[in-house]
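In this supplementary section we document a worked example of the pipeline. Step one takes a protein sequence of length 526 as its only input; no multiple sequence alignment statistics are reported here. Step two produces a three-dimensional model, which step three serialises into structure tokens for compact storage. The input and output of this example are shown verbatim.
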Amino acid sequence: MDEQRETLQRIVSTLANKNDEIHNFIDMLNHTIKNVQVSSSNAISELDEEFDGLYSILDEMKGSMASTIQQEEARKIQALKDQLNQCSTALESSEELLELAAQSLDIKDPVEFLKAATQIKDRVTMASAFRISLKPKVSDSMTHLMVDFALERRMLQAVKFLPVPKAPEIDLAACLVADNCITVSWRMPEEDSRIDHFVLEYRKTNFDGLPRVKDEQRWELVDYIKATEYTLSGLKFDTKYMNIRVQACNKAVAGEYSDPVTLETKAFVFSLDSTSSHLNLKVEDTYVEWDPTGGKGQEKIKGKENKSRSGAPSPKRTSISTRSLPRAGRDHFTGESYTVLGDTAVESGQHYWEVRAQKDCKSYSVGVTYRNLGKFDQLGKTNSSWCIHVNNWLQTTFSAKHNNKTKTLDIPVPDRIGVYCDFDGGQLAFYNANSKKLLHTFRTKFTQPLLPGFMIWCGGLTVSTGLQVPSAVKMLQKSENGLSGSTSSLNNIAYEHLTGSSRVSAAMNSVVCEGVRLVCLDPGGV
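The serialised model returned by step three reads:
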């Protein structure tokens, strides 16, 4: 009966997931139909604008060319009229001279006749009729202003829609998610020399598979990418996945988007839990500050206790517990335990977060603890909590603490501390978050879920979550784990407990105290 019930529950779960996928696909189809209608309307509007612009240019060209013809007509007519006037004047003078010559033929007196003949000859020599050209100055032809739009007509008839670049293909195997960066690689299905650039869009999501239409964040855009690979850097991974898509663009138009891919963005995300923090601490999301007024301002921000910085809820993960500690679940820390815990527990896997202290911070601790930390307990002073502690009160001291035992760290205090927790491997390591230099490592077997823990006095701490384990830390951990098994690797390892009564040679031994091995890279020993 129980087996059948379990089988039926799996069937119900499978059907529910499939129905959810179908609903999402139906939403996507309806959304696509609307987009097609909108895009079609926009395309027709743009087509009208283009043709109206073409008509306007043709009308403008027609008017200009007609004006040129009219001007040429006026020029030729004026030239012919000027020539006509000249000819009329010359003809009138010539007719007058002809009549005078005819009259001179009737003169009988030889002297008078000779005189008249000489005068007529001189006038004929100077007559305009013999000086003007009897050829028209301009022709009546207008062929030089004729047009032939046969080529243009063929070009217009050949006008088609712009060639749209094909959708790129994202090479999923070449994509890389590491160090809170995503490197995306893609290729074109065929060579296209007209492509000018690419556009990459990405969107955070908590859903695997195809992008959803509803309840999703907006797409972020990176434009004018010239290569076929791009790295998104400085990301906060506060969701489970990231949707990625790419489109190619030529000088005129953008092509279709590539098929979107969904990349997993694993990271540890938590907020500070104000429901149990010391009343002298102001707590908001990922920031905690010492408040000597006794927490009078706490009520103003307690409604924000479980909200992540981005406004999105922390994603569910198999390797961490996302159950926030209820207010009734534990008392506020009190006394000198100026403590605040994270609201999400680590139960398996490897995780990383960072802490930055204010420059004037007098004292603070950063570490992890089991849930059983008492309200008067301080980090590092119980057998269920581990931390590094910085004291800047009179002089700066830097130490690692566990079970009320202290290991002094003779190294500079970094302005940003990275915390690496390997729950299954039993390691809690602290790093200089800038240089990734190892500061200290606790080794033990964790038997209960771990909560990030912080103590602060006179100052403030900012916690950065949603970070992947940096590649440099992974490499150092592999190296450290490899060295810990060899005798020659122990030359730089030393241990000191609070009494200072024992000094252990790092050449052959590492001391195990109450189930926890404290390891520090300290070439000088202690």
